[in-house]
Amino acid sequence: MEAASLPAALELAAGGGAGLSPEKRAVLGASLVLLQRDYRFERVWFWGCIQGVRGAYYIAEGLGPDRAAPRSRLYRCGGWAGPHRSSVQGTSTSPGSLNCVEWSLLPPATEEMVAQAEQLKGRFQGDPSFEYEHIEINAADAERLFEDGKEPMIKEEARLLATIEQIDKAVGIIPRGAFVKTPLGSVHENRNFEGLSLMEAKKLSSYFHFTEPFNLKNKTLLEKADLDPSTDFLDSLEHDIPQGSWTVHLEKGDTVVVLRSLLWLGLTFYHVPMTKQYGYVYFGTGEKNFDLPFML
What we know:
This protein has helices spanning 6-12, 22-39, 111-118, 139-147, 156-171, 198-201, 221-224, 292-295, and strands spanning 43-51, 56-63, 72-78, 84-85, 92-93, 104-105, 131-133, 153-155, 173-175, 179-181, 187-189, 207-209, 246-251, 256-261, 267-271, 278-284. It is of the alpha+beta class. The chain has a domain at 173-264.
């Protein structure tokens, strides 16, 4: 969700019970403004919070002019049970604190990193330096590690990045028409977007996954003929598998449409119809709901 309107946005998405205290909202809102200035991002989004056993990770994303370009992801630890020295910034936090002024920049996610993180089960610890051991890797990497006398492992910081990547690809969404794709392939915010109507806002087909399309590529030329290539360049939610993985609610006196993911519990998207107000935020444990097929 947009950092500039963080307090109001969190209020709109708070129907599920998750959120931040007024004090944390104030600190976080101020620090995100500084983050945008220091890193010279065009926009900053507050992505959400992953709660670990000993503390939480607060996550932000920095965007440039092309919204389809890879995003810069940053995190801040808060409230875990020991001092931590950041591997990026070289700063420390005291036990139980929420220092949202200084952020650690995460490296780009790799396919190998995501594949390894998918093998890990259970809660996050809340310590970026924590190491998970005995993960399965390919034969070449296993032989190299064996020669070096090392055990296959992955740090929690890498798991954090891979989980953010997974959630963004699976349930990071935008309303139809909010972004436009230029003939050169870059994606920008649509200045003419004035929000969905209430009727359209209640349909899953009015929302798109903000990631590389998969179903769209498999459509026939006849099916694509009815689509506007400048706005219909992403996959809609109506074909998500399994069906029923999204819930749609009207809240705040039927003035806000809220979508919640049952696949990644804790992901909430909101949109105020007939306005430009929309966004999503995640408050959860960073664990995928593998029981969903049995719940539907």
